[in-house]
Every structure is written in structure tokens, then in C-alpha cells.
């Protein structure tokens, strides 16, 4: 039976073994990245992984190196490895256009490139506004800034997921089954791909983090308050205004951003260190009300992560 499996995962080294197990069961793997000209040379070992990654701006270096090693193993098994991310492909073309001396006025309106430019410009502008606000302005202004950013970010993700769903559906033809890599924030890809395939190929969502959480004997999920807020706007784009639920998620996300570990952890991967950190941090902020966040925000916004965590834990202990 034909099937498309979407693997919603996080870009952390600890998740690669679980993701690889799923990918190995398919004829093709669609990666969440734009096509790179030297990708096939890397897979075929005509180019080293470090040489391949050197010109690429990767957010998580250890994850990217480990993922390349896994992709080579899949390639050796005869599995097709395909890079598909049209939004980022267009964005790279826009950057190249600007680097060659052209400007926004040279992008034709009512084209895909223009739509990508507008979504990226709006989201990036809202993010920069949030960064400026969160370090200097009030709690309420910071909450408003993150709500504004979440809406623009959701609009960007909706276009990314739509373009990717169309591209994947158009390339599914030769394969009986395919595994599709997607970040957990891209849940909108699931209904969009189902729509594109129109019932011809069943689509199954899989969340490897659930298995990781079960393996360490925990319960919960890896969606922090900011991700929950963005997903809310992705799935309900026509929601008018901001209610109590959205405001609470925004308030908690201000605290969460200061508590979560930012650095890539590459040791003790069998214990899922990032999953543990995410579960602990989500549980900590989920106990906070808007009033709690308002009190804590000025105390932690300029503190290092470890100090911010201690302040919030001490605050919680004093309340119980």
C-alpha cells in the first residue's frame, strides 16, 4: 500500500537514531532543506561532510554533521534522498539577487518570489521589533510584540508548508512510500499534504519525541508556549484579536525563552538531554499565571539561563 509518512521531529542529535529508523522503512526521504548543488557528491562520498557543510549556514552543526552521516547510510541502502524546501530555495534566490545589487523593487508583484519576500520581510521585521522591545520595554509591550511576531511567523509557516506540500505531492509519483522530514512547528504540512494528495496516498503523521519521552519514563510534549502560540495562529489564521489563551501563552513564552537551554548538546544522547530540558522547562512555565510572568519578567530578562532558572524555581518554591 502506498503511504506518505511525515516525521515531525526536532533538529537535535539525540533524535537522529529514532528518525533514521523511520526513514529506513521507505523508498524515498524528502528532507526539509533546499537543494544544494554538491549534495549528491556528499552522499556518494566524493565530497567530505565538512567540505559540504562549510559554505552552508547551519544552525546546529553537530546535528547537521550527524544527519549527513545518516543520509549516506540511507543512500547506500538504495533509498532516494531528496531535498525539498521551495520557500527557502526562493529565499536564497532573493538573497543572491540583493547581493548582486538589485532591490525589493526588482521583485515582480504577484509572483511566488514576491510572496516569499513579503512573508519573510514581515516575520523578520516583527522578530526584530520583539528583540528591541523585550530588552527595554514593559512586560505588556513585550507580550504585544511576541503576539505580533507569532502572527507573522505563522503566516510565513503557512506559505512554507503549502509550497512544500505541493512540491512533495508532485514528486511522490515514482515511489510507493516516502518519509517526509518536518520540524515539529510544521504541523500544518499534514493537512496541506493530505489535500494535495486528495486521498490517492494516505498520509500518516509520526512524532518520534513521543517514543523518546516514553523511553525516559516521562509524559508530556515538546511544544513550548511560543510554539503553541504559533501553531494556534497557523491552524486558525482567521481568529480575530487576542484572547486570554493567546496572552497567557505569550506571557509564558517570555519566561520560557530565558529558561530553555540554547546550546546544542551532543553528549549522553541516549538520555535525551534536550527532551528532558524541554519537558522540565515546559512544566515550570505551565504553572505560571500572567501575573506570575509579569513579576518574573523584569527579574530574569537580562540574566544568564542558569540564573533565570534558579530565580523562577525559587519563586515557585516560595509560593508552595
**If classified by CATH, what would the architecture of one domain be?**
3-Layer(aba) Sandwich
For the secondary structure, the number of strands is 5
| Helix and strand composition category | alpha/beta
| Strand line-up across the major sheet | 3-2-4-1-5
Query: What is the ordering of alpha helices and beta strands?
Result: EHEHHHEHHHEHEHHHHHH
Low-confidence residue ranges: none
- For this structure, the CATH topology of one domain is Cobalt-precorrin-4 Transmethylase, domain 1
Q: What does the largest sheet look like?
A: 5 strands, parallel
% residues in beta strands: 5-15%
Give a short summary of the structure.
By secondary structure, the protein is of the alpha/beta class. 59% of the residues lie in helices and 8% in strands. It is globular, with a radius of gyration of 21 Å.
Topology of this structure?
Layout: E1 3-9, H1 16-23, E2 28-31, H2 39-43, H3 49-53, H4 61-76, E3 80-83, H5 86-99, H6 112-136, H7 139-171, E4 177-183, H8 189-197, E5 203-206, H9 208-215, H10 225-235, H11 244-259, H12 273-286, H13 290-300, H14 305-319
Parallel strand pairs: 1-4, 1-5, 2-3, 2-4
Helix pairs in contact: 5-6, 6-7, 7-8, 7-10, 7-11, 10-11, 11-12, 11-13
Q: Would you give an account of this structure?
A:
With 320 residues, the chain is α/β, with parallel strands linked by helices. The protein has a domain at 3-87 and 161-208: Cobalt-precorrin-4 Transmethylase, domain 1. It is 59% helix and 8% strand. It is built from 14 helices and 5 strands. Strands 3-2-4-1-5 form a 5-stranded parallel β-sheet, sandwiched between helices. The radius of gyration is 21 Å and the shape is globular. The mean pLDDT is 95.
